[in-house]
Design brief:
The protein is α+β, with helices and mostly antiparallel strands. 52% of the residues lie in helices and 12% in strands.
Length: 804
C-alpha cells in the first residue's frame, strides 16, 4: 500500500512538515509546525491508494468529527480536518510517548499501572458513550500512553453514533450517523478484541466497547490476548464459545477482584456484562483505593495478644507434621497407582511436528510424519484422534499444548520436532497431559530418512503401549502394512500429500505427478494409489476437470489401492463417493461408506461424505448425526463446518441452515463455499437483498466459480431481475467454450427463470455428463421445486436410482 510522501520542510496548508512519526493501513502521521499558532501538531493523511476511496474517506472524516466532538483529557484532541492539493488530512494533538500495545509488548504491566490507566480509559469511554458515540475498535494500538502516564484514546475511524442518545448527548455537536458504509451483517474492528455481538454482525451499543476494554485489561495484566488463534475463524470461535484462561493463572500478582472485573467485562451475554463504562470505572477506582490502603500501615489500637503456651504450640506443630506426612503418603500412593498409567486419556491431538533443520525443503518430512502418526493412531478404536485439517491450523505457531488441548477438548497433546542432516533424522516427541501439563511420555529417535515410515509406527505403538491401547490381530496387520519398504517411494508419496493438501488446481496436478512417480518406484504401494484417487476426486468435484475425465481415473486408482490393501479407509471413502456421484450405485456407495467408518472411526471425511450421501437420500436425521461426528473430529475444517448445514437446508429448515452457514462465515470470512450456501439459504427465506450480497461475495472470493455464478443468476431470476439472469447465462455459455461449465448450473438458472423446457434440457445434459449429484443434491435442491410436479422430474430421479 502506498503512502503519501511529504518531504521534511514542505508546507501543507499552514503546517510545515517536520518529520514522519509513523503510519498504517488507514493513515500516515507526521509531526508538523502550525505556522499560524506556533505550536507543533500531528498531521494524519490517508494513504494515496485510499484517497479516492469514498468509504475510506468517510471513515477518515468520521474519525475527525467523532473525536472533535469530545473534549476529554483522555481522548486525543482533534484541531481540524482540512484538504490541501486534493489530499485530506486531520490536524491533531501531538503526543509524546508510546501506544499501549508497545507498552505491553507481550509482558504484563504493574497492577498499579493497570488500574491507573484503566480508570482513565474507562472515563474516556464513559464520556464518548454519554454523547452516543461507540468507538467499536478499542485495542492497545488505539490507546496512547504519554510520558506523563496519561492514557489517550485514538482513532475513532470506526465510531458510530448510537440512535439512543440521552438528553445531554442531544445537545452535543451533530455527527452524521453512518449510512451503509459497511454491508449489513458485516463485522468491524480488530478481530482479537471484538465482542460476540460484533462477531455475529449484530446491532451494537456501548457494551461492545466494554467487552473490548475487558480484552485490553486482560492483556495489560497478562501480556497475552484472551482469545488467541492463528486464524480469524479460530479467534471467532473462541470469542463466541470459549472462556479465556483465568488471568490469575498467568499472573499470580493479579488481585482476585481485578480478575472479577475482567471476567465481568468479558461476559459473552451483554445483558450480564458491565452495562456502562461508569460502572466499570467505579469498580476500578474502588479496587485502587483498597489496594493503596492495604499498602499503608495502620497503627494497632488493640492490646498485645498473650503468647500461646509452649504446650499449645507443640500440639499444633505435631498436628501439622502428621497432616503433612499423611498427605505426602497419599500423594505418593496416588502417583504410584494413577500417575504411571494415564488410564483416562481417550483423545489426542497431534500438533504439526516442527522442522528445526532450517531447510524449507524438509517441510514435507515434518508434515509427513505428523500425518503418518495421526493416521497410525487413528487405527486404535479406543482413541479419538483430531483430524489433519484441524491440527494444521496450528502449523508455524508457538502454541501452548495445554491451551490447544482445552480448545480441542482432548485429554493429551503430542508435540514433536524433526531435524534433518544429510540422510540422518533426529525426531523428538512428547505427549503432554492437558489436565496438569505433565509429560505422559517422551522419546527421541535417531534414524535414516529411509526408515521414516517405521518411525511413525514406532511413535504410535509406543504411545499406544503407554496408554494401554490394544489392537485386534486385523488392526495390527493393518497398521503395519499401510506403507512401503522403498524409501524413495515413501518420500514421493509425502511430497504428493504435501502438494495435494494445498488444494489448488496447480498443486493437485503436481501431486498426481508425485503419486505416479511413487507408484512407478513401488507398484504395490497402496497409499500412493489412494492419493491418486483423492487427487482426481478433487479435480472432478471442483470442476477443474469434467466428471467423465476425472471420476473414472479416480475409481481406477481407488480400486487398485483396495486390491493391494483392502483396509484403507480413505480408499473405501473415495470409492463410495464415486459410486454415489458418478455410478449412481447407491447400494455400493453405502456399503463402502460403512466399511470405511468401520475401518477408521476417526476418519472425519468418511463421516462427512456419508452425511452428504444420507442427505441425498432424504435421510436428514441420520445425516445430521454423521456430520456432527465429522465436526467433532475436525472442528476447524471449514468445509465440514459448512456442510453441517446441508441437511437443514435440503430439509427446508432454513433458519437452522442459516445459523450453521453463518458460523462457517464467522470462522473465516474468506471461505467462499460458506457464503455460497448462506446465500442460497437466505434466498429460500425470500431475503433477496442479503442473499444476492452473499452470492456476489462467493463469486468474488472464488474468482468466478461457475456454481456460485449460476446461484447468483438464479437469485436474480427469482427476485425479478430477469435481464441480469439472462446476461449471466450468456456469459457462462461463452465461458463454456474454454472451460468446463456444469450443465446443472444452467438448469438451475432456467428453473429460476421459470423456463421448464430449457431447464429439463440442461438437466438431461447434466445426466449425460454425470454432474447431477456432484455437490448439487438434485434429489432435494429447493431451487428445482418448481420442476418437481412435472413427470419428467420423477423420471429423471428414477433413471439415476434416487428414491421416488
Amino acid at each position: 500500500m502506498s503512502t503519501p510522501s511529504q518531504p521534511v520542510g514542505q508546507t501543507v496548508s499552514h503546517y510545515r512538515i517536520v518529520r514522519k512519526i509513523g503510519g498504517g493501513g488507514m493513515g500516515v502521521v507526521y509531526e508538523a509546525e502550525d505556522l499560524k499558532l506556533g505550536r507543533h501538531v500531528a498531521l494524519k493523511f490517508l494513504p494515496d491508494d485510499l484517497a479516492n476511496d469514498s468509504q475510506a474517506l468517510s471513515r477518515f472524516q468520521r474519525e475527525a468529527k467523532a473525536a472533535s466532538s469530545l473534549n476529554h483529557p483522555n481522548i486525543c484532541t482533534i484541531h481540524e480536518i482540512d484538504e490541501s492539493d486534493g489530499r485530506t488530512f486531520i490536524a491533531m494533538e501531538l503526543l509524546e510517548g508510546q501506544t499501549l500495545r508497545h507498552r505491553i509488548a507481550g509482558k504484563p504491566l504493574e497492577i498499579q499501572t493497570v488500574l491507573d490507566l484503566g480508570i482513565q480509559i474507562a472515563d474516556a469511554l464513559d464520556a464518548a458513550h454519554s454523547k452516543g458515540i461507540i468507538h467499536r475498535d478499542v485495542k492497545p494500538a488505539n490507546i496512547f500512553v504519554t510520558n506523563r502516564r496519561q492514557a489517550k484514546i485514538l482513532d475513532f475511524g470506526l465510531a458510530k453514533v448510537s440512535l439512543k442518545q440521552d438528553t445531554a448527548a442531544m445537545s452535543a455537536p451533530t455527527i452524521d450517523v453512518e449510512e451503509h458504509l459497511t454491508s449489513p451483517g458485516s463485522v468491524l474492528g480488530t478481530v482479537a478484541y471484538m465482542s460476540p455481538e460484533q462477531v455475529r454482525g449484530k446491532e451494537l451499543d456501548a457494551r461492545t466497547d466494554l467487552f473490548s476494554f475487558g480484552a485490553v485489561l486482560y492483556e495489560m495484566c497478562t501480556g497475552m490476548l484472551p482469545f488467541r488463534s492463528d486464524t480469524t475463524r479460530g479467534t471467532f470461535d473462541s470469542i463466541l464459545n470459549r472462556g479465556p484462561v483465568p488471568p490469575i493463572r498467568i499472573n499470580p500478582d493479579i488481585p482476585p477482584k481485578l480478575e472479577e472485573i475482567i471476567n465481568k467485562a468479558l461476559e459473552k451475554d451483554r445483558e450480564v456484562r458491565y452495562q456502562s463504562a461508569a460502572e466499570l470505572r467505579s469498580d476500578l477506582k474502588r479496587l485502587r483505593r483498597d489496594t493503596e490502603s492495604r499498602k499503608t500501615p495502620v497503627p494497632s489500637t488493640e492490646a498485645p495478644v498473650l503468647e500461646k503456651s509452649w504446650w499449645s504450640r507443640r500440639v499444633i506443630m505435631m498436628s501439622l507434621v502428621v497432616i503433612v506426612t499423611v498427605t505426602g503418603a497419599l500423594i505418593a500412593v496416588s502417583k504410584f497407582y494413577f500417575g504411571r498409567i494415564p488410564r483416562r486419556i481417550d483423545s489426542i491431538a497431534v500438533l504439526p511436528f516442527v522442522n528445526t533443520s532450517g531447510d524449507p525443503n524438509a517441510e514435507y518430512l515434518s508434515d509427513g510424519i505428523t500425518e503418518g502418526v495421526i493416521h497410525s493412531l487413528s487405527q486404535f478404536p479406543q482413541l479419538r484422534v483430531m483430524a489433519r485439517s484441524t491440527i494444521f491450523h496450528y502449523k508455524g505457531r508457538d502454541v501452548d499444548p495445554r491451551r490447544v488441548g482445552r480448545d480441542l477438548d482432548v485429554k493429551a497433546v503430542l508435540t514433536g520436532t524433526l531435524a534433518q542432516q544429510g540422510d540422518e533424522l533426529r525426531i523428538e516427541a512428547e505427549l503432554v497431559n492437558v489436565s496438569n501439563g505433565s509429560e505422559v511420555w517422551g522419546e527421541q529417535y535417531d534414524r535414516q530418512i529411509s526408515s521414516m515410515s517405521a518411525v511413525e509406527r514406532a511413535i504410535s505403538q509406543d504411545i499406544a503401549e503407554k496408554l494401554r491401547l490394544r489392537l485386534t490381530g486385523e488392526g495390527r496387520l493393518r497398521l503395519n502394512r499401510q506403507s512401503t519398504d522403498n524409501p524413495q517411494a515413501y518420500q514421493l508419496y509425502l511430497k504428493g500429500r504435501y502438494e495435494w493438501n494445498k488444494r489448488t488446481e496447480t498443486t493437485v496436478k503436481q501431486a498426481i505427478r508425485y503419486f505416479e512417480q511413487a507408484i512407478d518406484t513401488d507398484p504395490a504401494y497402496a497409499l500412493a494409489y489412494a492419493g491418486l484417487a483423492d487427487s482426481y476426486l478433487i479435480l472432478g468435484t471442483w470442476e477443474f476437470l469434467p466428471p467423465r475425465d476425472a471420476y473414472p481415473k479416480a475409481k481406477e486408482a481407488a480400486e487398485k489401492a483396495l486390491e493391494l490393501d483392502d483396509s484403507l479407509a480413505e480408499a473405501h471413502t473415495s470409492l463410495a463417493w464415486i459410486h454415489q456421484v458418478y455410478d449412481w450405485d447407491w447400494t455400493a456407495a453405502e456399503r463402502e461408506f460403512k466399511r470405511a467408518i468401520e475401518l477408521n472411526p476417526n476418519y472425519a471425511t468418511g463421516h462427512q461424505w456419508y452425511g452428504i450421501f444420507l442427505t441425498n437420500r432424504g435421510q436428514f436425521a441420520e445425516a445430521k448425526l454423521e456430520l456432527e461426528r465429522a465436526e467433532q473430529l475436525d472442528p476447524l475444517s471449514l468445509i465440514i463446518v459448512t456442510e453441517t448445514g446441508e441437511p437443514y437446508y435440503f430439509g427446508r429448515e432454513y433458519d437452522k441452515a442459516v445459523e450453521h452457514y453463518r458460523k462457517a462465515v464467522q470462522l473465516d470470512e474468506n471461505f467462499w463455499p460458506a457464503h455460497f450456501f448462506l446465500g442460497i439459504a437466505l434466498e429460500q427465506k425470500s431475503d433477496f437483498v442479503y442473499a444476492i450480497s452473499e452470492l456476489q461475495t462467493a463469486v468474488k472470493l472464488s474468482s468466478g466459480s461457475t456454481e456460485a455464478t449460476a446461484a447468483l443468476a438464479h437469485a436474480y431470476a427469482v427476485s425479478g431481475n430477469t435481464s441480469q439472469a439472462v446476461t449471466v447465462v450468456d456469459q457462462l455459455k461463452t465461458l463454456s467454450s474454454s472451460k468446463f461449465v456444469s450443465a446443472y448450473d444452467f438448469a438451475v438458472i432456467f428453473a429460476g427463470l421459470g423456463n421448464r423446457t430449457e431447464a429439463f434440457q440442461w438437466l438431461e445434459r447434466s445426466r449425460e455428463e454425470r454432474s447431477l449429484l456432484d455437490d448439487h443434491e438434485i434429489s432435494s435442491d429447493p431451487r428445482l421445486d418448481n420442476l418437481r410436479p412435472d413427470p419428467r422430474f420423477a423420471d429423471l430421479r428414477r433413471r439415476i436410482g434416487l428414491p421416488q
